[in-house]
Amino acid sequence: MPPTNALEILAAAVEPISIGIFLLRNFPFMTFGAALDPLRQANRLAGRTVFKWTLISIDGAGVMASAGVIVPVDSSIDNMPHCDLVLVCAGLDHASHYNSKVFAWLRRLHRQACVLGAISTGPFLLARAGLLDGLRCAVHWEQLPQFQEEFPNCIVTNEIFAIDGLFITSSGGTVTLDMMLYIIAACRGRPLAAAISDQFNHPEIRQEHDFQRMKPQSRFSIRHAKLAEVITAMEDSIQDPVDLQVLARRIQISTRQMERLFLRHLGKTPSDFYTGLRMARARDLILQTDLSISTVAQICGYMSSTHFGRTYRTHFGVTPREMRSEGILPRK
Fold this sequence. Notes:
Helices cover 47% and strands 14% of the residues. It is an alpha/beta fold. The protein has a seven-stranded mixed sheet, sandwiched between helices. A two-stranded antiparallel sheet has the order 3-4. The chain has a two-stranded parallel ribbon with strand order 8-9. It starts with 5 loop residues before the first helix and ends in a 6-residue tail after the last helix.
């Protein structure tokens, strides 16, 4: 049978396997490097050209990364060579690159059975092109609520990367290294991928179904297992907050014990900590998306925009609208 999914197609490709990286203005440099450098190491360690790559921009001009570094490219989308895989690499201002010409190009590549990948906010462009409906895709946890709101027909996962059909999506950052090692292992064997990982002092290749965020124990410097369970449950229920008594019963502790744990280890009541998690999510959405204030309120579990606005002002010292329109940083 002919190959039917992304990994099978890439594994069956004739060497050198050709990979295009499509850069959009303000792309994250770490994510770009994590996609490109494993290919260089693969060639070095294999002693032959296993992979070749092409850097692509819309018009063939160099592209400025979010760090202000301009990266020269090899071709435009109009004259790019054949690629077995094309990765879309975009930054926080992905919506400014919604472009009918780019969408038509992506759809044409898909019709030609080119494997399409997306890293960082690249999944937004594939989804806006209508290519990810009904498919699993990985999106960075910070952009996940916006993605769900904008593309309800896509199946969003909190896993570090996702492979579905002819599409590979990564939540970005260092996860992209794991995704590329996973691809290399599928194409040319796990020993090569492991050797590359070792070269990067990357002690473990994370797998597709690993989750994105650090465990609460590491993020909040806590060691109490029950407290970590409560925090995880809170983070998983930002949009639909759970009553604290229900939460305590679910974790099998008393509300009084939960109160003592939060005060002892975090210096806050469970209610204040929960509100802080919701406000942190709200701040990210206010500063990094164009979602309406009422939509942000709903995503953060507030049915009343007025209540949301009062809580936000109490927490940050400014209203959501002031922070967005004037670029005001929170006071705390």
